[in-house]
Amino acid sequence: MVDNKSKTGPGPDTNAVHGQTTEAGPSSSATSSQPKTPSARERLASLASHLLPQGNTEFDYVIVGGGTAGAVLADRLTQDKDVSVAVIEGGPSDVGLDRVLDLSRWLELLGSDLDYDYPTTEQPMGNSHIRHSRAKVLGGCSSHNTLISFRPFNADLDLWADGYGCPSWRSSAIQPYGDRLKLNIVPVAPQQRNQVARDWVQACETATGAPMIRDFNAQIAHNGGFQQGVGFFNIAYNPYDGSRSSASVAYLHPIMPHGPYRRNNLHLFLETWAQRLTFDEKDPQRVRGVAVRTKHGLEKTLTARREVLVCAGAVDSPRLLLHSGIGPKADLEKVGLPCRHDLPGVGENLHDHPESIIIWETKETPPETVMSSDAGLFLKVLPDSAEPFPMPSVPDLMFHIYQIPFTDNTNRMGYPHPDHAICMTPNICRSQARGKLSLASSDPAVKPLLNFRYFEDKDSYDAKILVEGMKWARKIAQQSPFKEHLVREIAPGAHIQTDEDLSEYARRAAHTVYHPAGTCKMGTPGRDAHVVVDERDLRVVGLRGIRVVDASVMPILPTINPMLTVLMVAERAADLITQDAWQKGIRRAQWE
Ligand SMILES: Cc1cc2nc3c(=O)[nH]c(=O)nc-3n(C[C@H](O)[C@H](O)[C@H](O)COP(=O)(O)OP(=O)(O)OC[C@H]3O[C@@H](n4cnc5c(N)ncnc54)[C@H](O)[C@@H]3O)c2cc1C
């Protein structure tokens, strides 16, 4: 049993440090095109600003979470210099943090001081030891992750539209937002493609018949997707120095105090934790602001003249709503929180891309790589009828290949840790398991309970996909010249052969691709009792002055790694919010 209640985790006591702001003060260099080294005076000003400003606590928009989605909104909304935006971010700035900015060091961040590190509850059918890494730093998980960058398939967005009651998210409307993204997204540079991965790609092609794809995103942009394919990933990075092109680097750095295009209307409250939302004194349905706590325990309320935009991610967005009394009434009362707005869907629909692992010892580890997981394979292994919404011509199984030993789960099961290894990690593109996030306590510092119900889906679809994946992995391992790199299969080992045994191993050794989503699901209000935000505008159903914009709004994860989809959701949200403001301006309507 995993202890979920013992640690206070990401709340104020352990995480928020200075309650500092990095406020963009008045500057003469707002339009300079050259980045400049901060002067001693600027460094002093920056230090002095490491306190919450006493006077300035009212802004047009207050964004909770300067992560992947929050960075996009902060940039897009401050393009209008007359609009003021506050960003409340639990972690520190990533500027100058080499361990964050150097993509190859991503593994150092897992479980570090920059990780909220959420455990799961006991998983009777799966692995109860999975830790969900969530980044506590500007840029959020895009400052933490491997930056594998896939646009969503057309079929993924059309499934949101036709299967999940989100007609305004059809691919024809949403794909153009992929062209706007500011990240530097390129296929892995040839000089960083190591020989094991090159031979693996070739082995996959030979063993499975999946065609080699040279640029996955070009294929998606031109053809809407593909059914099978193998190749090196598109990654958001600078191939010349291996540095990240995260949401923070691409959207925030240029407009931050020391960036070339600093914006005085952007106010960053770093290492500051959003405790709960506050409501209008006269109007209980109108969210007014956010009560925050700094690392040093300073408490303040930031007020939004227009709207609060919750971008705290799939774990912390529903968590914040629940601590504000927005959620399933019975659950709130169970932990002693008064229910302000009964919304049964908050925290429901928790899901992920679960994966398993098959490990081979190798003779050596070639050094060339971007971040040790540079290539992938997509296959279609089960009939369309296996899914509730059939997805013809879309893969249902994805593999990453790790060119390093990734043995956290297999060590615990007693398998050895080789010095050199490759790991194939089959994952489920559209998992059918649905879990729930709930509160363990009314104390906002206590980590929430994450019950993914891994492998509890009724037809064992998820386990069947992984069994197929393990079998394909072994066929791939038999192909020359790839097989010449291998010494022996470490896990699960040659004695595990039947579907039953493969399933048992795959579930016990299961891990996550770190893609939790869906906990503030969007949809058509009234059509589904678990809809949390209205698909038309991302507003929280039944409330005013609040929208949710991040991975939590996805009704179902896209087939592929979701970061670009999150960024596209945020780009569209920025359009919705600004259009709404313009219309109000034209009608001279008040922000009630
Ligand atoms: C290790 C890892 C590897 C991954 N690899 C990939 C990959 O290669 N490709 C891919 O597509 N996806 C990948 N993902 C998933 C992807 O990064 C996420 O789905 C996506 O970044 C989520 O964006 P978000 O805006 O929803 O949340 P986040 O980016 O997590 O942003 C949430 C932000 O809110 C802040 N916050 C939360 N609560 C509060 C609060 N109460 N007060 C103040 N601030 C708060 C957090 O500090 C954080 O900065 C990976 C994720 C991880 C963790």
From TrEMBL:
Keywords: FAD, Flavoprotein. Residues 313-327 form the Glucose-methanol-choline oxidoreductase N-terminal domain. The keyword Iron-sulfur does not apply. One of its GO terms (molecular function) is flavin adenine dinucleotide binding. Residues 1-42 are annotated as: Disordered. Its cofactor is FAD. Residues 17-37 have a biased composition (Polar residues). The keyword Electron transport does not apply. PANTHER family: GLUCOSE-METHANOL-CHOLINE GMC OXIDOREDUCTASE, OXIDASE (CODA), PUTATIVE (AFU_ORTHOLOGUE AFUA_8G04090)-RELATED. This is Alcohol oxidase. The lineage of its organism: Eukaryota, Fungi, Dikarya, Basidiomycota, Ustilaginomycotina.
